[in-house]
Amino acid sequence: MKRLGGRLALGVALGAALGCQAQPSPTSEPSALPAVSAPPSASQAPPPPSPAGALEGKWRGGASTKAHAFTYGGEPGASLGWKKDDGKLGVGPVELSLEVAPSGAVTGRATGALGALQARGQAEEEVLIATLSPEADEPTAFSGTLTLRREGEQLKGTLQASTGDSLKARSAELTLARE
User: Fold this and answer.
1) What is the pLDDT of residue 174?
2) Domain containing 110: what range?
3) By C-alpha distance, which of 62, 83, 110, 77 is closest to 169?
4) Does the global pTM surpass 0.70?
């Protein structure tokens, strides 16, 4: 029995050795499969569209701000400070210039009745939203927001701003055109 087990082991080892053949190295024989390469159009694909879309570029325009009218109605919590706003500070013409980068980043500046303000925001497809921050740190400085939408070859929307204590609120309807 011992002899049969040894022969069986020898047979298995010999069969395994004969069954294994050396595989050719990848460089010794050409492959039966053709080489795969990217189609010519894939390497010449256009770049992806800019997040800014049609808003990319420089824009300029203006508006005239007006005092924002609040309804008081004697509600609890209504600020009496709003009633004291004479509607003169921050009312008048405002000029705005913006630049929209291909990334959609918006930078710019506003000057006029609201003082000197820096604009920072984002544009995407047809909409531009930005914050306005005062260049000077003064108690009566205005801060605000811009919300603009492309309409044909113009940007139209609103500017809303207030003083730091929110007691003087101003608004305007804006129209900007390409520079």
Assistant:
1) 95
2) 53-178
3) 83
4) no
Domain count, the chain: 1
CA dihedral 66, 72, 77, 81 (to 10 degrees): 50
Which residue numbers in the chain have pLDDT < 70? 1-43, 47-49, 70-82
Q: Please name the residues in contact with 169: beta carbons below 8 A apart, sequence gap of 6 or more.
A: 67, 68, 70, 82, 85, 160, 161, 162
Q: How confident is the model at residue 139, as a pLDDT?
A: 85
In a domain, 33, yes or no: no
CA 57 to chain centre: 15
Rounded Cα distance between 77 and 68, Å, is: 18
Amino acid at 73: G
Residue environment code for 112-123, b if the CB has 16+ CB neighbours within 10 A, otherwise e: bbbbebebebbb
Measure the N-to-C terminal CA separation of the chain; round to a whole number of Å. 101
CA 6 from chain centre, in angstroms, equals 76
Rounded to 5 degrees, φ, ψ at 137 are -90, 90
149 assigned to some structural domain: yes
What CA–CA distance (Å, rounded) separates 20 from 89? 94
Residue 114 maps to a domain: yes
94 belongs to a structural domain: yes
User: Residue 95, SS3?
Assistant: strand
CATH code assigned at 86: 2.40.160.90
